[in-house]
């Protein structure tokens, strides 16, 4: 948990022989810490196995849709060789979405006054 806090990570991808085996979230770690045998647990016991992944070409809309449908907060991202290339979080997607909306607002294509 200290590593996650120092690096400001909230998710870790667990790899096994070069393949994505699972994802561990900060919530998974906090839940594991509540167990009496938490020091004895290994990654495979607390991770979400076989996580839903997206490709580098997956749209922001589709990624958000997947996260909402499956109640998850991150998605491993794979390249065309199906290797891990990154991890996208709900926060990352919302930040990008806001940049795009801000661009539309400055172009006059959309009006956000009702949000203020």
Automatic annotation (TrEMBL):
According to the entry, every stretch annotated as the CBS domain falls at 47-103
Q: What is this protein called?
A: CBS domain-containing protein
At the top level, the lineage of the source is Bacteria
Write out the entry's keywords from A to Z: CBS domain
Gene3D superfamilies recorded: CBS-domain
Q: Which organism is it from?
A: Piscirickettsia litoralis
What the entry lists under InterPro entries is as follows:
CBS_dom (IPR000644), CBS_dom_sf (IPR046342), Diverse_CBS-Domain (IPR051257)
